[in-house]
Fold this sequence. Notes:
single chain, alpha/beta, Rossmann fold, Arc Repressor Mutant, subunit A, Four Helix Bundle (Hemerythrin (Met), subunit A), five-stranded antiparallel beta sheet, 13 helices, 55% helix, elongated, phosphorelay response regulator activity, HPT_dom_sf, CheY-like_superfamily
Amino acid sequence: MRLLLVEDDECIANTLENILGNQHYVVDVANDGELGWELVEAFKYDLILLDVMLPKLDGIQLCQRLRSHNYQAPVLLLTAQNSSTHKVMGLDAGADDYLVKPFDMSELLARIRVLLRRRNSTLQTVLEWENLRLDPGKCEVVYNNHLLNLTPKEYRLLELFLRNGHQVFSRSDILEHLWSTEEAPQEDTVTAHIKGLRQKLKQAGAENNFIETVYGLGYRLKVPTSSKNLPQKTKENHRLNGAKPSTKQQIRDLFYEAQDLHNNIQQTKAALTKLWEKLKVKSCDRISILEQATAALLENNLGDELRQKAQQAAHKLAGALGIFGFIKGSRLAFEVEQMLRSHMNINHNQVLHLYNLVIALKQEIQQPAFAELEKILCHDILDDAIE
C-alpha cells in the first residue's frame, strides 16, 4: 500500500515515515500543501495523511481541492486543533476521518487499517498461492508451514504479486509501487530483491521459479500446474469454510490475536524510542525558542516575529511529544501555545507562570520516551489486580 504524508513538522514526518515503513507501507512525504497536490497528480495513493496547518496550501484547502477533482482515496486529517469547529470543517471538506495530536501511534495505525479496509474489503484477507500463505493482518508469510523472515521490501513485493495473481510487473512498475519518491533506486535493485525473495522461498521448499521471469516483460507468480489451484485463492481471516470452531478454539484464537497485537505495540514503541534519540535535539531547539520568547516577555519586549516563532514551536511540540509518550509534556506545550496566542492580555504573574511552564517542559523531555506512559499502565494493572 502506498501512502502520502503531508506534514511540515520534520519530527512528526520522520517518525510517521519510519513507523509506517515498518508496517510495510510505502510512504511519500510532502512538507507543504502544494507539493502534496503535485505528488497526488503524479502518483496513485491508497490513503493520504494530511496535516491541517500547512504552508502554501493548508490541509482543509488541499482536501477540498482533492474532492473537487473527484479524488477518491481516503483522507485522514491530523491536527493539534481539538475544537468541534475544526473537526466539522475538515469533515465537510471531504476528509474521511480526523485524529487530534497528540495521538497514540497504535490508534493511528488502526484508523489507517479501517480506512483501507472500507475502501477495499479484500485488503485484510489472507492471500494464498499454492503452498504460500500471506496474512496482511499479522504481516506474516508462510510457505509449507515454514515462516519466512522477509525484509519489508520483500514482503511488499510478494504482496504485490499475490494481490495481482496473473499480472506481469516490469521492473519500473515495481519501483513505482514499492519505492517512495525520495528513494529512487535503479532497476537493478528490483532484480536483487527478486533474487533474495526467490532464495528464501526455495529454502522453504518452493521451486526456484516460483516467481517466474517473463522475458522482455517482467515478473509474475508462476501459474500452478494443477487446474484446481489455477485462480488465486483468498479466504477471510475469520473462517468461511468448515465447521464452526469450538469455544476453546475461539478463546485460543483470541489469545493469539491479543498476543500479536501486544508484540506489535511493543515493536512500535521500541522503534519510536530509538527514533526519539535522533529527534530529541529538534525538540530542544524548539524549547530554546520558547525560552527566548518568555525572557523577552519578562522584559516586556516580545516582538511579533519571535512570538510567532515561539507559538509555532509550542504548537509543533504539543503534537510531536505525545507520539513519544510525553503526555504531560504535550499538555504543557499546548498550554504554552494558548498563552502565547493571548500574550497581549496576560499580566506579570501569568508571564511568570508561562516561564515556569517552559522550565517544566524542558525538564520533561529529559525523561526517557514513554516513561510516563509506562507509569500509567503499571498503575492501571495494579488497580485491576487490587479489584
